[in-house]
Amino acid sequence: MPRRKKLADGPDWTFELLEQYQAEIARVAEHYRLDTYKNQIEVITAEQMMDAYASVGMPIGYNHWTFGKKFIQTEQTYKRGQMGLAYEIVINSDPCISYLMEENSITMQALVMAHACYGHNSFFKGNYLFQSWTDASSIIDYLLFAKNYIAECENKYGVDEVEACLDACHALMAHGVDRYKRPQKVSMTEEKKRQKLRAEYMQSQVNMLWRTLPEAVKKTKTETLNFPSEPQENILYFIEKNAPLLKPWQREIVRIVRKISQYFYPQKQTQVMNEGWACFWHYTILNHLYDEGLVSDNFMMEFLHSHTNVVAQPEYNSPYYSGINPYALGFNMFMDIKRICQEPTEEDKKWFPEIAGKDWLDTVHFAMENFKDESFISQFLSPKLMRDFKLFHIHDDDKENFIEISAIHNEAGYHSIRAALSNQYNLSNLEPNIQVINADIQGDRSLTLKYTRHNEIPLADSKHEVLKHLYYLWQFDVKLVEDNDEGKPVIIAQCPIPEVNTEKAS
Amino acid sequence: MANFIDRRLNSKNKSTVNRQRFIRRYKSQIKKSVEEAINQRGVTDVESGENVTIPKKDMSEPIFHQGKGGVRDRIHPGNDQYSAGDKIKRPPQQGGQGSGQGEASDSGEGQDDFVFSISKDEYLNLLFEDLELPNLEKNQLDKLVDYKTVRSGYCTQGVPANIDIVKSLQGSIARRIAMTSSKRKELKALEQQLEALEKDPHDHVAQEKKLQQDIVDLKSKIAAVPFIDTFDLRFRNYAKQPVPTSKAVMFCLMDVSGSMDQATKDMAKRFYILLYLFLTRTYKTIDVVYIRHHTQAKEVDEQEFFYSQETGGTIASSALELMIKVIDERYNPREWNIYGAQASDGDNWADDSPYCYKLMTQDLLPLCRYFAYIEITQRAHQTLWQQYQKVADTTPHFAMQHIKSVEDIYPVFRELFKKNTKQVA
């Protein structure tokens, strides 16, 4: 490699300098086979960064008070100095949009470019969840469509109506995700065309379902048939397709919220991996540049300082402790995979026979592409890392008046800790399992949902409030049941709350 | 492979709409907080915005989430003392403890209230929503303060810098058309004649020559008309216009006799703050005159007004007399909008009250836009109240209210200044 001139190390940046760093980073990224969407790098100010925060990572958001609330919160905590702003925000779109803050030094800009524009970007493009659940090329168009559609509804039906509908949808947002079925890709023009047709078609379908005219008489014989025939976990989808009295525009709004929820779902499932991958690559790429003599010692010192802060893991008894830092866990796991490939110990060979001694680049790419947090941890968390982190497992059963250390980082505990940590990232354990089990289409049109406990954990009190929102959408009685110890369903929440035992003849 | 875009100059207030939505939604809570805040304000910080506090539970967005209890398995880093099988006491619940996934920290209970600041304008808007100034009139224009230079048409004379090119050239075209039209008609006629002669088979050499000569003459005459003439020039004209700003003066009258304690004065002070804030919304310049009285009235500064202690009896009319005197000397009612606010605990020399009535109706009220009287007392009303009651019955721009405690101030203020639909029309 011919010796080249060192890149300037700032601390101030210019657009030319950014271009130079970007070009070098791109070259190294290609050397490591990082396949990315085209990058669109936008330089913004701190205020704009707060705007971006408030819209929870959507570059174009529809208007709603909750984003105003988030903005005010961000602004407050930032002003009081309780929180620094993130150095970057990156959006899973094609081209991949990343925001750089103008306050950053050139070192930070280089770090962010390596981290976001090549780390996150390649993750968005390569990971199977993103590939199958999100469509990077159409998201910007879709968000634009959503924003315009909602603005149009506000004009037609009033801000209050639309706000109430969005509130209700937001309450159920986490339950608007298809966990198994893969949605199809649609571009904005198509979406617009379809939207009109869909509105009419859906209304007609709903009308069919709820028609009360004589045809129903025949059906009474098959009354025992439950509707829906299978429990539905995607509550918003169920509402969109089946709620009896929703107006077409309300259905469309339900759909918009559902779609956006779906878009963010993979990010929830790959926090550790995504951040770990991005940290791994900014670390690797910038070190590579340093080895080539392209960046200065100053640059490296500043970079390492920030990097170390990002991937620090406070211990459980530290005042800064707030759970396991996904950056730290992810970064160390990818570094550890590299180590296992390059310098496997006897232990590694026993635990990871399939990767020990293999090509490390192939292996990390394979890991990035084919896993999510939960499976990634159960596949690749090594005993060495558990020792490094000094992980221990606490079993907390509220029936006992003590908590128990059920495993620590030793031979007997590795498997148990790995399984428990993997579970800790399993979304279906973290989000309450609530499914639509019955809509009484023949009778009083009431809707019944069922909560199934995981590990005996009850549903929090907010359920009553959420049901009010659900009632707003469904517009007939809504019940939430849970099986009791004998396996019989008991109502744990309902809306509207019935007045003192009136007869339930109907 | 990358595209840099500098967005720094784009608008930064992407969230403004959302912020307004938020304020709109929580208007009632914010208003309540604003109303409470006015009671804690000093008279000096009228310029600042306000911190607004909303109970967090009022604005939570409920979602289904797991509650407390059940069996939980968590992995923590940094083991320094435990071995497998250790049983330890359950540590006291902490918000967010052991929540690697963000969800739990949202649901933690016992969080602080949501506090945020609103700007001065937002604050005043909320505070004075639905209120209006009674009897607002534009008094005589203030000759001293403001003249604004405004465009007023065009004139034919001026300095070169003010030449309006378009207007001038329009004039030039018009002048040239007007001055050459008869000559051009002639020219056309001659040219036709010449053409006719040339087509004629016979020779008309002399005639043709004469015509050609005439044509040349005419053309040179037309060309001699100047392209632009001083006559064409138009200059932008400017005129000085007086800006209609009206001035207001607010008289604060307060009884500082022995019966008024500091708490009562504080209440009065809050009332004056509100009035002052309210007036600042309409008037750019507001003078405040503080007049305090016991048996004698005295014009004082703000500090002395609120914080110096006096003792003695009470003669309310002395303050009214002084106010009339000050108006007479300094505030010509034709130039100033005069507002009065009097606060008292109701004590007055019984014989003095009828005189107050007389002063009020005959001398003072004709000069004032509005006069508000508040009585801060826990006791029964006395003579002053009864006399003023008579004033209020007959005069629309006199208002009186009774304040018992601090909480009453804001509602009373609203009551005094609530929008009067009849007046608006």
Automatic annotation (TrEMBL), chain A:
Q: Which residues form the SpoVR-like C-terminal domain?
A: 432-483
Highest taxon of the source?
A: Bacteria
So which residues are the signal peptide here? Answer: none
Give all residue intervals belonging to the SpoVR protein-like N-terminal domain: 12-428
UniProt cross-references to NCBIfam families, sorted A to Z: PRK11767.1 (NF008737)
Q: What is this protein called?
A: SpoVR family protein
Which organism is the protein's source?
A: Thalassotalea marina
Automatic annotation (TrEMBL), chain B:
- How far does the signal peptide extend, from start to end residue? none
Which Pfam families does UniProt cross-reference here? DUF444
Where do the TM regions start and end? none
Per its UniProt entry, which superkingdom is the organism in?
Bacteria
Q: Where is this region: Disordered?
A: 45-112
> What InterPro entries does this protein's entry cite?
UPF0229
Please state which protein family the record places this protein in.
Answer: Belongs to the UPF0229 family.
Identification of the protein by name: UPF0229 protein GCM10017161_33450
Organism of origin: Thalassotalea marina
